[in-house]
Protein backbone atom coordinates (compact mmCIF):
# COMPACT_ATOMS: atom_id res chain seq x y z
CA UNK A 1 0.00 0.00 0.00
CA UNK A 2 2.84 2.36 0.84
CA UNK A 3 4.35 1.78 -2.60
CA UNK A 4 1.00 2.70 -4.20
CA UNK A 5 0.91 6.07 -2.38
CA UNK A 6 4.53 6.78 -3.26
CA UNK A 7 3.77 6.06 -6.92
CA UNK A 8 0.68 8.27 -6.81
CA UNK A 9 2.63 11.08 -5.17
CA UNK A 10 5.37 10.78 -7.79
CA UNK A 11 2.78 10.92 -10.61
CA UNK A 12 1.27 14.08 -9.12
CA UNK A 13 4.70 15.69 -8.97
CA UNK A 14 5.07 15.04 -12.69
CA UNK A 15 1.54 16.07 -13.74
CA UNK A 16 0.85 19.13 -11.57
CA UNK A 17 3.50 21.36 -13.18
CA UNK A 18 1.88 20.68 -16.56
CA UNK A 19 -1.50 21.72 -15.19
CA UNK A 20 -0.07 25.06 -14.09
CA UNK A 21 2.13 25.80 -17.09
CA UNK A 22 1.43 28.92 -19.16
CA UNK A 23 -2.00 28.34 -20.61
CA UNK A 24 -4.93 30.53 -21.54
CA UNK A 25 -3.41 33.95 -21.31
CA UNK A 26 -1.61 33.26 -18.04
CA UNK A 27 1.55 35.11 -19.07
CA UNK A 28 1.12 38.65 -17.74
CA UNK A 29 1.78 41.76 -19.78
CA UNK A 30 2.83 44.98 -18.08
CA UNK A 31 0.51 47.99 -17.89
CA UNK A 32 0.80 50.21 -20.94
CA UNK A 33 2.37 47.60 -23.24
CA UNK A 34 1.34 48.07 -26.84
CA UNK A 35 2.07 46.77 -30.30
CA UNK A 36 1.50 48.79 -33.47
CA UNK A 37 2.30 49.15 -37.16
CA UNK A 38 5.21 51.50 -37.76
CA UNK A 39 4.84 52.13 -41.48
CA UNK A 40 1.14 51.48 -42.16
CA UNK A 41 -2.04 53.13 -41.01
CA UNK A 42 -5.73 52.46 -41.46
CA UNK A 43 -6.87 53.39 -44.98
CA UNK A 44 -3.44 53.22 -46.67
CA UNK A 45 -3.21 52.15 -50.31
CA UNK A 46 -0.12 50.04 -51.05
CA UNK A 47 1.39 47.80 -53.72
CA UNK A 48 2.24 44.14 -53.26
CA UNK A 49 4.56 42.86 -51.95
CA UNK A 50 3.85 44.85 -48.77
CA UNK A 51 6.60 45.51 -46.24
CA UNK A 52 5.23 45.66 -42.71
CA UNK A 53 7.21 46.96 -39.73
CA UNK A 54 6.15 45.96 -36.20
CA UNK A 55 6.45 48.37 -33.26
CA UNK A 56 6.40 47.43 -29.58
CA UNK A 57 6.41 49.55 -26.42
CA UNK A 58 6.66 48.47 -22.81
CA UNK A 59 7.91 44.95 -23.56
CA UNK A 60 10.78 43.21 -25.31
CA UNK A 61 10.96 40.69 -28.13
CA UNK A 62 12.14 37.14 -27.46
CA UNK A 63 11.99 34.12 -29.77
CA UNK A 64 9.25 31.53 -29.39
CA UNK A 65 10.19 28.93 -26.81
CA UNK A 66 12.11 31.43 -24.68
CA UNK A 67 10.19 32.05 -21.46
CA UNK A 68 11.30 35.45 -20.19
CA UNK A 69 9.26 37.99 -18.22
CA UNK A 70 7.81 40.96 -20.14
CA UNK A 71 8.68 39.54 -23.57
CA UNK A 72 6.89 37.95 -26.50
CA UNK A 73 7.03 37.60 -30.25
CA UNK A 74 4.92 39.03 -33.04
CA UNK A 75 2.03 37.46 -34.94
CA UNK A 76 0.48 39.11 -37.99
CA UNK A 77 -3.21 38.41 -38.45
CA UNK A 78 -4.39 38.88 -42.07
CA UNK A 79 -8.10 39.05 -42.95
CA UNK A 80 -9.06 37.33 -39.66
CA UNK A 81 -9.72 38.28 -36.05
CA UNK A 82 -8.61 36.83 -32.74
CA UNK A 83 -11.13 37.33 -29.98
CA UNK A 84 -12.98 35.64 -27.15
CA UNK A 85 -11.76 32.13 -26.35
CA UNK A 86 -9.14 32.35 -29.10
CA UNK A 87 -7.23 34.72 -26.82
CA UNK A 88 -6.76 31.78 -24.45
CA UNK A 89 -5.23 29.45 -27.05
CA UNK A 90 -2.07 29.25 -29.10
CA UNK A 91 -2.37 31.38 -32.20
CA UNK A 92 -2.67 29.09 -35.23
CA UNK A 93 0.02 29.10 -37.92
CA UNK A 94 -1.45 29.41 -41.41
CA UNK A 95 -1.79 31.88 -44.29
CA UNK A 96 -3.93 34.20 -42.14
CA UNK A 97 -1.88 33.89 -38.94
CA UNK A 98 1.81 34.55 -39.57
CA UNK A 99 4.25 33.71 -36.76
CA UNK A 100 7.51 35.55 -36.19
CA UNK A 101 8.91 33.22 -33.58
CA UNK A 102 12.49 34.11 -34.45
CA UNK A 103 11.94 37.55 -32.95
CA UNK A 104 11.51 39.30 -36.31
CA UNK A 105 10.14 42.85 -36.28
CA UNK A 106 9.49 43.23 -40.02
CA UNK A 107 8.16 41.17 -42.89
CA UNK A 108 7.23 41.44 -46.56
CA UNK A 109 4.04 39.68 -47.66
CA UNK A 110 2.34 39.13 -51.00
CA UNK A 111 -1.27 40.24 -50.88
CA UNK A 112 -3.84 40.01 -53.66
CA UNK A 113 -5.33 43.26 -54.97
CA UNK A 114 -8.24 44.53 -52.89
CA UNK A 115 -8.97 45.31 -49.26
CA UNK A 116 -7.22 43.46 -46.45
CA UNK A 117 -7.35 43.73 -42.68
CA UNK A 118 -4.17 43.49 -40.63
CA UNK A 119 -3.63 43.18 -36.90
CA UNK A 120 -0.60 42.50 -34.71
CA UNK A 121 -0.84 40.26 -31.65
CA UNK A 122 2.05 39.61 -29.29
CA UNK A 123 2.29 35.99 -28.19
CA UNK A 124 4.16 34.56 -25.23
CA UNK A 125 6.83 31.88 -25.50
CA UNK A 126 4.13 29.34 -26.40
CA UNK A 127 2.23 31.52 -28.94
CA UNK A 128 -0.60 32.34 -26.50
CA UNK A 129 -1.62 36.01 -26.18
CA UNK A 130 -0.64 37.68 -22.91
CA UNK A 131 -3.02 38.68 -20.14
CA UNK A 132 -4.18 41.29 -20.86
CA UNK A 133 -3.64 40.78 -24.61
CA UNK A 134 -1.13 43.04 -26.32
CA UNK A 135 -2.68 43.63 -29.73
CA UNK A 136 -2.91 46.48 -32.21
CA UNK A 137 -6.06 47.97 -33.59
CA UNK A 138 -7.16 46.15 -36.73
CA UNK A 139 -6.40 48.28 -39.78
CA UNK A 140 -7.71 48.03 -43.34
CA UNK A 141 -5.40 48.60 -46.29
CA UNK A 142 -6.06 48.50 -50.02
CA UNK A 143 -3.62 46.72 -52.31
CA UNK A 144 -3.52 48.08 -55.85
From TrEMBL:
Top-level division of the source organism's lineage: Bacteria
Pfam family, one: DUF4399
InterPro entries: DUF4399
Keyword Signal: yes
Name assigned to this protein: DUF4399 domain-containing protein
Keywords, ordered alphabetically: Signal
Sequence ranges assigned to domain DUF4399 in this UniProt record: 52-144
Signal sequence, renumbered to the chain: 1-24
Amino acid sequence: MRSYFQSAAMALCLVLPLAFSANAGETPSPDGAKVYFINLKDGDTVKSPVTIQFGLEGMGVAPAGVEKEKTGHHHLIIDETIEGEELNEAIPADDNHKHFGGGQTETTVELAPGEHTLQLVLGDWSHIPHNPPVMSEQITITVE
